[in-house]
Amino acid sequence: MLTAKRPFGSAKFLPLVLGACVACNWHTSDAKLERNFMKHEVEFNALLAQVNADVRLGMLRSDSLSYANHLFEKPIEMSKVEGAGLSKERLDWYQQQMQNLGISQINRGDSEIGLRVDQGSISNGDSYKGYRYSTTPPKGRTLTSLDGYKLSPQDMVPGGYIVYKPIKGNWYLYLFVNN
Questions:
Q1: Is the bond into 15 cis (omega within 30 degrees of 0)?
Q2: How far apart are CA 29 and CA 158, in angstroms?
Q3: Phi, psi at residue 81, to the nearest 5°?
Q4: Strand, coil or helix: what is 87?
Q5: This prediction's pTM
Q6: How many CB atoms are located within 10 Å of the residue 108 CB?
Q7: How far apart are CA 43 and CA 68, in angstroms?
Q8: Is residue 37 within 8 Å of 168, Cβ to Cβ?
Q9: Tally: H helices and E strands in the chain
Q10: Which residue has the higher pLDDT, 5 or 75?
Q11: What is the C-alpha separation between 66 and 55, in angstroms, rounded?
Q12: What mean pLDDT comes out for the span 106-132?
């Protein structure tokens, strides 16, 4: 139980503290993510090809799966997942690739694939960092570094703030901070 007094006498200070933590190196560094990408570029592109080919995949992480407009949560019943069209072998392949590449979540959108590395937590201001492949230029500012990012009104999108760093072709690093 926290018994500390509220700084400045307001609960409004909390989001500022959490937002500022984004700049406190709570995320994997750009350099580490870029080295991982360059080392495993072939595997990233293979995963991208499979996710692009499987239009029914919406989201995948270790504890849940969105597939064919169905949400499956732990304990995931394979018979129901297979009934929706995803084989155990394919799911195992996705999960193995995620583990090999250091990815905690796959998100599939219409023109982009998000590969989340760092999950949101109270220690990082409920922010996420990872890789994004986009067939169109990102809708957000591109920076030379995401390390030490500080919130800026020009980076606001519905639900938070987002910035990108180009790494190769249509591949980017991204940082998303929830409001």
A1: no
A2: 25
A3: -65, -45
A4: coil
A5: 0.84
A6: 17
A7: 25
A8: yes
A9: 5, 10
A10: 75
A11: 11
A12: 87
